[in-house]
Amino acid sequence: KQEVTQIPAALSVPEGENLVLNCSFTDSAIYNLQWFRQDPGKGLTSLLLIQSSQREQTSGRLNASLDKSSGRSTLYIAASQPGDSATYLCAVTQGGSEKLVFGKGMKLTVNP
Amino acid sequence: NAGVTQTPKFRVLKTGQSMTLLCAQDMNHEYMYWYRQDPGMGLRLIHYSVGEGTTAKGEVPDGYNVSRLKKQNFLLGLESAAPSQTSVYFCASRRLAGWVGELFFGEGSRLTVL
C-alpha cells in the first residue's frame, strides 16, 4: 500500500528564507506527483505536477523535483513571503490506478 | 470560469438524516472524486468516477453513495448520517489524457452531524 509522508508537519520561518519542503513515498511505481497549497477554510490549489518521466518542474519562485528511485520529492520555495503561509500537500498517482494518495501536509508560516 | 463548484458549503444534520452534496465541473473532465478531510487523517478518497455513468469505491466508502448521471455532475449521498461523518468534503476533477492530468478541487463542504 502506497504511503506518502511529509516531515515536518509544521515549519515557521522568517520572511526571505529559501525553503525546502520534503515528500517521500514508499512505492516508486507512480504516474506522477503533484504539489498542492491549501489556505485555511479553502480547497486545494495545484502548484506543480511532475510526470514520472520528469525530474523537475518550475513555476515562478517554486521548483519541484522528483527522484522516483529514492521515493522522494522536494518543493523549493525561493525568497519566502508571508503570503506563502499555507499548508502544502503532496500527492502521488499510483501506477495502474486513477487514485491519488495524499500526504498529511506541512503547515508553513512565514513571519514578516 | 467556475471550475469545480460544491453545494452546499455548510450543513448541519441530525443523526439519521439524509442529504446530498452536489459537485459540478465545467471543464469537461472525465474523472471526478469525493474526498473527506479530517484533522490528523489527511485526505481520504470516498468514491470516484472515471466517466459518465460509472462509479467506484475509494478508501472509505461505507455510509456513502454516489451517482454520475451527467458528465459534469458528481453527487455524494449520505442515507443515514452519523456523527463520524462530520468532516469537510472536497470534490475534485481531472481530465483523461495521455498524461494523467492535474487535479482541480472545489472549495469544500463542511458537514456537521449532531
Describe the model.
The complex is a heterodimer of chains A (about 110) and B (about 110). Chain A has about 110 residues and is mainly β. Chain A is about 0% helix and about 60% strand. Chain A has strands spanning about 5, 10-15, 20-25, 30-40, 45-50, 55-60, 60-65, 70-75, 85-95, 100, 105-110. The termini of chain A are far apart. The relative contact order of chain A is 0.34. With about 110 residues, chain B is mainly beta. Chain B is about 0% helix and about 50% strand. Chain B has strands spanning about 5, 10-15, 20-25, 30-40, 40-50, 55, 65, 75-80, 85-95, 105, 110-114. In chain B, a hairpin with a 6-residue loop joins strand 5 (about 40-50) and strand 6 (about 55). Chain B is globular, with a radius of gyration of 13 Å. Chain B starts with a strand and ends with a strand. Chains A and B meet through strand 4, strand 5 and strand 9 of A and strand 5 and strand 10 of B.
User: What kind of sheet is the major sheet of chain B?
Assistant: 7 strands, mixed
* Mean pLDDT level of chain A: 93
Strand content of chain A: over 45%
Q: What is the number of helices of chain A?
A: 0
Low-confidence stretches of chain B: none
Topology of chain A as a string of helices (H) and strands (E): EEEEEEEEEEE
Which whole number gives the mean pLDDT of chain B? 92
Kindly report how far apart the N and C termini of chain A lie.
Answer: 41 Å
Reconstruct the topology from this structure:
The complex is a heterodimer of chains A (112) and B (114).
Chain A lengths: L3 E2 L4 E5 L4 E7 L4 E9 L5 E8 L4 E4 L2 E6 L4 E6 L8 E9 L5 E3 L3 E6 L1
Parallel strand pairs in A: 2-11
Antiparallel strand pairs in A: 1-3, 3-8, 4-5, 4-9, 6-7, 7-8, 9-10, 9-11
Chain B lengths: L3 E4 L2 E4 L5 E7 L5 E8 L3 E8 L6 E2 L7 E3 L5 E6 L8 E8 L9 E2 L3 E5 L1
Parallel strand pairs in B: 2-11
Antiparallel strand pairs in B: 1-3, 3-8, 4-5, 4-9, 5-6, 7-8, 9-10, 9-11
